[in-house]
Amino acid sequence: MLIRHGYEITVNCWQPTPMVTQMAIHDDRRRDVRAPERFVTTPEIDTATYHDPFGNLCRRFVAPAGDLTLWSDAIIEDSGLADIAWPDAVQHDVAELPDECLMYLMGSRYCETDRLSQMAWDLFGNTPPGWARVQAICDFTHQRIAFNYQNARSTRTAFEACEEGTGVCRDYAHLAAALVRCMNIPARYVNGFLTDIGVPRADPMDFCAWIEVYLGGRWHTFDPRNNIPRTGRIVISRGRD
Fold it and tell me: What count of Cα atoms within 13 Å lies in the side-chain half-sphere of residue 62?
């Protein structure tokens, strides 16, 4: 299956403004790219790229005063398979986790494990460890938050999303990631494109957020916002939040 993806975003600045964007296809999917990603700015400006500590491809530039349009287009090959469930995936003891997983156990700016830990253990302490526990957390998050673009807020944290019961995909991902970490399971935040393939009345393809959880020796995709298997995810960036 070939998927065409890209974006056209216009920003307006009152004065020249340094910017960094994370909107390029993650290196993990570079082998699947069939038409190289093109990036164009209007007006034309100089840009440069680098990789951040999480391995994400970042683009930096100085936006001029006035309107600046960022445009990208690419074609990527995808298996066409929906997210795969691994119900037998086991939960690792913390002492057995790879070193690179440990930072995804800790609280972060938007995932306050200290404020959610007691609730997490009260709700999920008796669930079967492993896949079933993570899915129970995603079910809870899916039901706890009501999706509403009008209630989006860039400063909302996982704890606040839980208290307010409203938000967008980033809030679902932050709350689920925080609760999973509270249960001593590594979880990382993922930003990417999500297609509307195979889902009736789905929102058009757009930037979206979900999580990846480390179980059974590998990372697995969980999507507390949609909470159903989806096809054609294209990872852009990963991080603690």
Answer: 4
- Which has the closest alpha carbon to 173: 162, 163, 164, 183? 162
Q: Is 53 helix (H, G, I), strand (E, B) or coil?
A: coil
Q: List, in order, residues 6 or more apart from 187 with CB less than 8 Å away.
A: 104, 176, 177, 178, 180, 181, 211, 212, 213, 214
pTM above 0.90, yes or no: yes
Q: Which domains does the chain have, with CATH numbers?
A: 2-77 (no CATH), 94-239 (3.10.620.30)
For residues 10-26, give the mean pLDDT: 97
pLDDT at 237: 97
Q: Where does the chain show beta strands of DSSP type E?
A: 2-13, 17-21, 33-42, 47-51, 57-63, 66-77, 146-147, 166-167, 187-194, 206-215, 218-222, 233-239
CA–CA distance, 9 with 39 (Å, rounded to integer): 12
- Reply yes or no on whether the pLDDT at 199 is more than 90: no
- The residue whose two tokens read 């970490």 is 181
Rounded-to-5 percentages of helix, strand, coil across the chain: 25, 35, 35
How far does Cα 58 stand from its chain's mean position? 16
**Around Cβ 74, how many Cβ atoms within 10 Å?**
19
Q: What is the rounded average pLDDT for all residues in the chain?
A: 95
- 202-219 pLDDT per residue, tens: 566 778 999 999 999 999
Beta-bridge mates of residue 73: 6, 38
Burial per residue of 185-210, b for 16 or more beta-carbon CB atoms within 10 angstroms, e otherwise: bbbbbbbbbbbeeeeeeeeebeebbb
